[in-house]
Structures are given as structure tokens and as C-alpha cells.
Design brief:
With about 350 residues, the protein is of the alpha/beta class. It folds into 2 domains: about 1-120, 3-Layer(aba) Sandwich (Rossmann fold), CATH 3.40.50; about 120-300 and about 330-350, Dihydrodipicolinate Reductase, domain 2. It has helices at about 10-20, 35-45, 55, 75-85, 100-110, 125-135, 170-185, 305-315, 325-345, and strands at about 1-5, 25-30, 50, 65, 85-90, 115, 140-150, 190-195, 205-215, 220-225, 235-240, 240-245, 255-260, 270, 275, 290-295, 345-350. Strand 14 and strand 15 (about 275) form a beta hairpin. Helix 5 packs antiparallel against helix 9 (about 325-345) and helix 7 packs across helix 9 (about 325-345). The structure holds nicotinamide-adenine-dinucleotide. Nicotinamide-adenine-dinucleotide (NAD) binds near residues 12, 35, 70 and 91.
Length: about 350
Amino acid sequence: MLNLGIIGFGGMASSHVKDLENYERLHVKGVFDVDAKRCAVAQEKGLKAYASQEALFSDPSIDIILVATTNEVHKELSIEAMKAGKHVICEKPVTLNSQELLEIMEASKKYGKVFTINQNRRTNKDFVLMKRNVEQGLLGDVYVIESRVEGSRGMPTGWRTIKALGGGMMLDWGVHLIDQLMYMMDEKVVSVYCKMYHIQYDEVDDNFRLIMTFESGVTAHVEVSTNNYITHPRWYVLGKQGTLQIDDWDCDGKIVRCIDTENIWEDEIVYTKAGPTKVMAPRNANSTETLVLSEPLDVVDDLTVVYDGLIDAIEGKAALKITPEQAMRVMKVMEAAFVSHESNSVLNVNI
Ligand SMILES: NC(=O)c1ccc[n+]([C@@H]2O[C@H](COP(=O)([O-])OP(=O)(O)OC[C@H]3O[C@@H](n4cnc5c(N)ncnc54)[C@H](O)[C@@H]3O)[C@@H](O)[C@H]2O)c1
């Protein structure tokens, strides 16, 4: 069994500890946090609290370091940990920009250590449900994927509202939604347009709307909002033969598919409450079928999946699943999104 040491013992680090409680491949040994109160919380949970970063990184019994601090120190701490001979799992967003990630990638090569990123939302059940149905061809050729995460409570105070600490919703949630789409699509992104909003905070984006176009022409609409009192569905996907909607993280949803091959139009115009129309006339109910979607119970969605990928790579059993190269592409899309917003233009990219 390998030993894990944690630097930065806040909310997310506690979530790692919880998921690793009964995990047989890794033992959580101890933590270091610059905040003494957080070290005390770790001790209450039966973990060792190291006196300093150096004390944690120089413990020879520790094999892997989890970097779960605020984002502005991810680069520095990841490199220091690898220099000290540890493999590293770093929380998302991996860094503040692509240059910082490049430095981590160079350090990983130089010190011969495995570096992965906690892009844990690839196993979220709503995402897996959408991906499976699209890949089974139930919608025909897909041309639009809309992915949204929306809250109405604004952003929590603290580092998420401070630019220099890596705040803002693009780096916080955008990184997950973009990673899911790039993991699924296996295609280059060729254009990016983004509009960001500052509803509550001037310093960071607290809402954004992003359109990414993939090489095949598929467009992804990605939206993260913090003040939507009425929400859209989590997923809305258009294919040539059908439409998929998944309402929420509970995975309630449906696919409506066209089974009318002849598609015969009435000659007469149809009168609706909004006036006469032919194009928008309601469909005959018998011309579609509805498939009800529900939570995929076979999917394991906890952090042990990410750790399995890391430990398999460390032990040489399999190639690393969440790679710095993948994180680099996501980072470049986010960087393009900021430039697009600032210049109010569509950027042609090759990512
Ligand atoms: N993967 C996910 O689903 C997910 C969810 C939430 C947060 N996160 C990520 O986890 C990280 C932490 O977020 P959080 O919500 O736990 O924040 P948090 O504020 O609760 O915790 C951060 C902790 O890091 C400590 N810290 C800061 N600089 C340090 C340093 N140099 N050395 C040691 N400790 C230091 C702080 O004192 C604090 O206790 C962020 O990168 C965030 O984006 C990921």
C-alpha cells in the first residue's frame, strides 16, 4: 500500500480523505496546511499534522502528494513535491495558465515522477449517461451539445472571488465542463467565443457563456452561472434523429427520437395561439418515441477512480488516464475564452 501526504487541508482535501477511507491501495498519512486550524482538524480525524511543507515533502514514507491548496500555488508546490521525489496529484484547475503547466510537465520529466490532475468529473453519472447515449447513436449525428451548471446563491466569499488566487467560474467550474467535452469528443477545437459576466464581483467572472466548435463542426455551448433562479437542463443535445435532455445531477431525463420516415406535411397552415404557422406546427404524437433516462447504477463516481488511474501508472500497469497533455488542451481553451471575451471576437484556434 502506498502513502499519501496532503498539502492544503481545506474542503476538497477532506473530500479526498472521505473517499479514500476504505480504499485498499493508498493510506492517507498526514497533512500540512498554512492554517493551524486546518492542521488541528486533520489531527481530529486521526491524521498526522506535519510542522511544515518541508517536513511533509521530506518524509521518505510518503509516495504521493495531493496538492489541494488554492490555485495560485499549485505550480510551485507540485514542482517542489516532485523535486522531493514524490508523485503528484494536483487539484483542478491544474495551474493559472498554460506556461505554469509547461513548467510542471518539464519537472515531471526531469524528476521522473508521475503527475496527474483531479479531473474527477469524467465519472459524473449525468455526463456518463449523456455520453453513452450519444455514442450508441440514439440521436443520429450530433451537432450541438449544451452543458450547463447553474446555481443561484452567488459565489462563496474567499479565494474564489480573487483573481490572483485563481478565482472565477471559468477556472472553477469551466475547467470541469470543458474537460468532459474534450475527453468525450477526441477532436481538435477550431474556434472559441466567450462572453463573461461580473454580476456580483468585478474582479472575476462569476458567470460565463462559451461556444466551442470542434473540427467536425459539432458545437458545444458551455454555461456556468451563479445567479440563475430558474435553471436550464444540465444537458441538452441535438442530433439529426433526436434530442436528449438530462435535467439534473440526479440524471432524470429523456430522449425523443423521430420514427416518422415519411415526414408528410399537411397542406393547410396551422393556427396556434401565436398565430398561423406551417414550419412550427406541432408534430403528430405518433411520429416520435420517447426513451426515459435514469441514473446509470453501474457507474462508480468517486475519487478512487482517479487514484486507480494514478497508481496503475506509477506501478507500470497502464498508461496514465488523466494526463498533463489533456489538461494543457483544456487550459488553452480557457485562455482562448478569456482573450475572446476581452476582444469580443471569435478566435480561430487549433487546440
Ligand atoms: N475536483 C473538484 O471537484 C473540486 C471541488 C472543490 C475544490 N476543488 C479544488 O481544490 C482546491 C482547494 O479548494 P477548497 O475548496 O478545498 O479550498 P479551501 O479554501 O477550503 O482549502 C484550501 C486550503 O489550502 C490551504 N493553503 C493555501 N496555501 C497553502 C500553502 N502554500 N501550503 C499549505 N496550505 C495552503 C488553505 O489554508 C486552505 O486550508 C482548489 O484548487 C479547488 O479548485 C476541486
